[in-house]
Amino acid sequence: xxxxxxxxxxxxxxxxxxxxxxxxxxxxxxxxxxxxxxxxxxxxxxxxxxxxxxxxxxxxxxxxxxxxxxxxxxxxxxxxxxxxxxxxxxxxxxxxxxxxxxxxxxxxxxxxxxxxxxxxxxxxxxxxxxxxxxxxxxxxxxxx
Length: 144
Prior knowledge:
Mean pLDDT: 94
Radius of gyration: 14 Å
Number of strands: 6
Distance between the termini: 32 Å
Number of domains: 1
Low-confidence stretches: none
Strand content: 25-35%
Order of helices and strands: EEHHEEEEHH
Shape: globular
């Protein structure tokens, strides 16, 4: 069974773009997909919701179609497990909200870096460190 989710990408003026993801919509899957989108989006701090939405689709659309596409919003779907929102704060950071629709609770609200730190696998964290240079990189678990 697939874990379905909608990601809403919000512009500073309130304009939104929504993307449906048919599978892997749980936080660990979305953390990786959001990091992969950074490879196709404008380099931060430049952020445009339309561009970031296209980058997310480009990074996650399988060859042959399906699985991820533009939608009119979370209300359009009756079988979602999660709803996400991403936008840019005034300081340039990307802010993520993750809501479990099954549990009807906010699971996460904060910087994308913190979301990836909490939910991302080793590959997601390594990719983050490669794509977003920082004096304070994400800690990657070492192989035992």
